[in-house]
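Fold description:
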Amino acid sequence: MRILVAPDKFKGSLSAAQAAEAMAAGVARVDPSIQTQLCPLADGGEGTLEILVKACGGSIVQVPISGPVGGIKLEGPMGFSPDGQVAFIEIASCCGLEQIPIEQRDPMRTGSFGAGQLLRHAIQRGAKTVIVALGGSGTVDGGIGLLQGFGAHVLLDNGTVYSGHRGRKLRGADVGHVMAVSASAAGAMALWGGEHAASRRAGGGVKALPALAEKLDLSGRVKIIGACDVDNPLLGERGAARVFGPQKGATADVVEYLDRALGTLAERLGAAEAAQAPGSGAAGGIGFILRACFGATLRAGVDMVMEQTDFAAKLRQCDLCLTGEGLLEAQSLGGKTVVGVARACQAAGKPCIALAGGVALDGEVAQRHGISAMRGICAVPASLEQAKAHAARWLGEATEQTVRMLQIGVNLSALQSRP
């Protein structure tokens, strides 16, 4: 038997690499002769940067940036390919939920300024392609903080222009007040108050940022790709505010405000099409702003990671794939690693077994998406804290028992095939 071990992280307890090691140890306890190939994966969330950089043989540098809430300074990690032509940015590492103290987790108070600083740094260092991993954010600011941190000038309805060197850092509470964006303060004022006023009155919206792109010569020179861990649009019932806002500390009233404000932002930027695109709701709307203002391509993060780690070739060499993540639920269908792996296995005609800290996905639905079987790893009823503390041991034991049951099935089939 040849087994491909391809899990994501178990959030808060195990990295993808640690999870793969625990699963491989479980297989070895059954039969050391079983061939296992490890392929830790990610989907655009935490851990994506490390996996992509390792896959290309690149390196990680630390860049001083502003954190997602006022007063926090970070050393933001970003990666570069060996030739410096490709840069990697992970939103979870620069404005992620884990960088925000629990008492300050409120998307009205958080912003993505640091992500813009990293994007600017990547381009200034000469990167021709920038891959932005759009998962694990602690913000719902529609990406306006990223614009400001990148160097854009953002005009609010109070008549003040904010930029990377002027004014406070923009945050979620400011989303509905953005009037125009440009490469210069004068340009922002002109876009809203003069040059495009007639178009605005006619309902044509404001085409923000072409001036910014031209100033930095981005058009045709730098390609930006958003690696999304979800396929949600910006607005509505599946939008950034309604689905992910509560996870980031938003009350019901804040969710309603942010959904309306994001709609206003999309309207004022003349970017209704970008707001509807799958993945535009990723990272609190950063997916939207990258597509609307930088012409970025949005892709499923797990597909990108599987490509970079040569997952398909590894799968062809194996008989079975074992994958896993912390929680397997309906939201996993929207771009998470386990389902991405299962769909790839289904297309290749290979069985896929998923192990998770918790399983809340309907079995019939799971099978339609390529998951041959699934099981939770908790050996006994446990709290979340207990499950995290014992994750490595329980994951290894669950893997061991899964493989033992597979062996029993193989032996029974052999018996039944006897004449």
In short: The first strand starts at residue 2 and ends at 5. The radius of gyration is 23 Å. The mean pLDDT is 89.
